[in-house]
Amino acid sequence: MATVGLLHPGAMGSFLGRAVAAAGHEVLWVSGGRSARTRSRATGFTEVADLVELAGRTDTVLSVCPPAAALEVAAAVTASGFSGRYVDANAISPGTVHRVADLMPGVDVIDGAVIGGPSTADAVLHLAGAGADAAAELFEPAMLTVRVLNGPFGSASALKACYALTSKAVTAALLTARAAAAASGVGAELVAEWERTQPGVADRVTAAERGIGATAWRFGPEMAEAAAYFRSVSLPDGFSAAAADVFDRLAALRDCPPPTDPAEVRRLLAEGSQCSS
């Protein structure tokens, strides 16, 4: 049985942790400073006092945190004295995951990327780099699909950035179009054209408007990371950068009660001010 330290048990992190636990391994988590909601998600995991204790008791650390915190978390794990396997499953660029590896000399860093939501039916964890095959064995296959990529270290993060361009960036474009049409008094006409020529798009936009409050604060930094990747391979980064701007404008919705009011989404896109709810 392996011991895996989970940083941290948010929605996706707790799902990955359960997939590790289902394979018969112990999952540790640091409870200090975490919310009651996080504590609830960590049910069944072993609570430890701090990162130093976690590092001393685990042979693998699984990092699942907001993209903007990936380097900070890696540096803190290094400072704790950890010297085992580190699976970075964050939505960051290949360049950033290489910086993570640079921060962790003597640690076996594995590039990871999750595509899909936190459920067995949806999520796929992609891994790349030396040690990826061994890391894949930590997860219960009946609960989580894990795919080891043939590409080099960083290729999992590249895949995530490319996928995000065709998913989150498209959502950002649709939200922007809906807000612009509403501002110009042609919102109903745009929806009618979507329904006539692209069935399902109007429903997708409505669902995105109502659910974006819970995720925009994470999507902005993720799309900024994706833009950095496209720049690094000399391809246009504007699509991802614009999506980052859209989600950054909506980040204030994190403080609003769900479901999000579509009119509030359109107002924030236009004004970029605080949530009014």
The fold-level CATH name of the largest domain is: Rossmann fold
Structure summary, number of beta strands: 8
Low-confidence stretches: none
Name the CATH class of the largest domain.
Alpha Beta
Helix content percent band: 40-55%
Ends distance: 48 Å
CATH architecture of the largest domain, by name, is 3-Layer(aba) Sandwich
Oligomer: single chain
Give Rg in angstroms: 20 Å
Form type: globular
What is the SS-derived class?
alpha/beta
Sheet with the most strands, sense and barrel status: 8 strands, mixed
H/E element order: EHEHEHEHEHEEHEHHHHHHH
Mean pLDDT: 95
Strand content: 5-15%
**What is the topology, as strand order, of the major beta sheet?**
3-2-1-4-5-6-7-8
How many helix segments? 13
How many discrete structural domains? 2
Q: What is the assigned CATH homologous superfamily of the largest domain? A: NAD(P)-binding Rossmann-like Domain
Structural features:
277 residues, 2 domains, alpha/beta, 8 strands, N-(1-d-carboxylethyl)-l-norvaline Dehydrogenase, domain 2, globular, 13 helices
What does this protein look like?
The protein is of the alpha/beta class. It folds into two domains: 3-152, Rossmann fold (3-Layer(aba) Sandwich); 167-271, N-(1-d-carboxylethyl)-l-norvaline Dehydrogenase, domain 2 (Orthogonal Bundle). The protein contains 13 helices and eight strands. It has an eight-stranded mixed sheet with strand order 3-2-1-4-5-6-7-8, with helices on both faces. Helix 6 links the parallel strand 7 and strand 8 (145-148). The relative contact order is 0.10.
